[in-house]
Amino acid sequence: MVAGRRLSALMLVLAVALGLGQAGAADPTAVAGTGGAVVSAELAASQAGVEILGAGGNAADAAVATALALAVVHPQAGNLGGGGFAVVRFSGRVAALDFRETAPAAARADMYLDGRGRPVAEASLIGPLAAGVPGSPAGLRELHAAYGRLPWPQVVEPAIRLAGEGFRVSRRLSGDIAEEQALLGRFPSSAAIWLPGGRPVAAGALVLQPELAATLRDYAAAGPSAISEGPRAAAIEAASRAHGGILTAADLAAYRPLWREPVRFSAFGWQAASMPPPSSGGIIVAQTCGLLQRTGWAALPRFGADRAHQLAETWRRCFADRFQLGDPDRTGFDGSPLLSASWLDLRAGQLRRHATPSKKVRPWSEPAARESGQTTHLSVVDGDGNAVSMTTTLNGSFGCGLTVDGAGFLLNNEMDDFAAAPGQPNLYGLVQGEANAVAPGKRMLSSMSPLVCWRQGEVLVLGSPGGPRIPTATAQVLLNIVVDADELQAAVNRPRIHHQWFPDAIFAEPDALAPETAAELKRRGHELREIKAIGDVSAVRRAADGGVEAAADPRGGGAAVVQHPAPG
Ligand code: DON
Known about the structure:
The protein is built from 20 helices and 19 strands. Helix content is about 35%, strand content about 20%. The longest helix has 17 residues, at about 305-320. Mean pLDDT is about 95; it is low at about 1-25 and about 365-370. The chain is α+β, with helices and mostly antiparallel strands. Bound molecules: 6-diazenyl-5-OXO-L-norleucine. 6-diazenyl-5-OXO-L-norleucine binds near residues 373, 374 and 417.
């Protein structure tokens, strides 16, 4: 068994494409073959998923195994102490799983404000007061219960192995630990794992996480109650209280993942499904396609100012509409009017040759209609063409920084995704409304947009981290494929731009805009700001004949693995 595993791991190494990051490293090349494919932020996690496919698992088994492996080898964002969303397509039917964190029962609308109503620095970002109730333990189990084929303990096994026997630290992880050294150094339980001897773990070092391995073993045996009840729930409550948090064991026991009706839309001849609120991401990607299909965007010259201008003007309006979104179970607003033909017509009709200042773009409203962190995305298909597109997050890199003694995992800082002070920018500069104010038990608004698209037997699975840049990065890769017929890797690699209403500027990666395009955009009234990277897209495409192609993003350190690589 062990020898077999080693052999298959060796074969996989021959078939992977590695993204080693921007600085002087080789860019990834898409891998092709047959059977299933997995793209995730770390090679060991993608391999865990393909190992499970090889053992007879389907896309749900592989996605859960990959997500749990990421909780071990990609602690910046992979998690048990955070949450996420998954869009699945099985036997042609789509579904959306919401395992987003919720605000603890003791949360209050003003919990991050001082006596004068001003946000308290770092309160919604650092330490367990920033943590929402984790959704991943129950969410991943739910995905497996609904769609998985292999026994649950088998799906957890690769993560147990990586935690118990150890894994080699990647260059990206080592660099990210160094970047967050101050955060992790505040909490001895986190520093003990990631800053041994007070220094970031070096790339290539072996890291063992025995406490996390024990948690995963009990999770394999008992499911989410191994974390949401008993000694681990007590440990989470104690760790939270010791550092000024409000999470309780009762919060953990009360958490439930929810199945939701996906946002469905057409994208230039493809059908598409993504996440509805409490994520804004699916709506933004759907609005983007809806507007661009109305404005003749596809016929405009590629890489020219007209296209960039229309994208920026579209996203300015999408993010203005986002202002009205929040947890649909609290606001009673599911966002569907934002995708109505009449609203998309109206929005498309507002686009002019010149930039509209964001302060003049009002969010959708009832009367009128008639507005460096870490997350991680994994894309999976299996040999039958079933697909899972899953984005999970702790919000900021390494979440709130606190590793729970007695459980071995980091807690999120997802509470910062609420509008801590409505109208004021959050970690990502997003200006959000009352609809997304903090309230007990409420889910904070997200931008994650796990996406599955299909057309005549073909399937495309996309998604990304990047806060508000998630839907804009995802939409650009989608457009590169469905409008401009790019190869998968080229579609992922192309430089990207971004706009999010406020700040009122087009963010552009280096090389995204030719000098004459940039000059023309400035003439049209756009402010341009350079940004190093927009998103980190994981992409899988399956052809009607069963051929698969998988691409990691050179912006990150991810890895694409296919089950049966094509020779050569
Ligand atoms: O849910 C959201 O939209 C954010 N918490 C995602 C954070 C993120 O993508 C950070 N990654 N780079």
